[in-house]
Design brief:
Blueprint: H1 17-48, H2 58-75
């Protein structure tokens, strides 16, 4: 039986509480990841990219790599 079908034994319809909890956990994890990467992108871009252009310079690229590594280490 699929998790969204009603159970004839309990008389309930819709997803079970366990399925709902899993969905909420997945949505929270996705929201956290989006916020984390958004913050990471803003901070490292502001710190490392001095003159926005069509491509990154070597020093900007290195700075962003280091910034990302440090940010991930600090928040792990």
């Amino acid at each position: 039986m699929d998790p969204y079908s009603s159970s004839s034994q309990s008389g309930r319809s819709g997803p079970s509480p366990e399925v709902l909890m899993d969905q909420v956990k997945q949505q929270l994890a996705q929201a956290y990841a989006e916020e984390f990467f958004g913050t990471l992108r803003e901070k490292c871009f502001a710190k490392c990219v001095t003159k926005p252009g069509t491509s990154l310079s070597g020093s900007e690229s290195s700075c962003i790599s280091r910034c990302v590594e440090r940010y991930i280490e600090a928040t792990a």
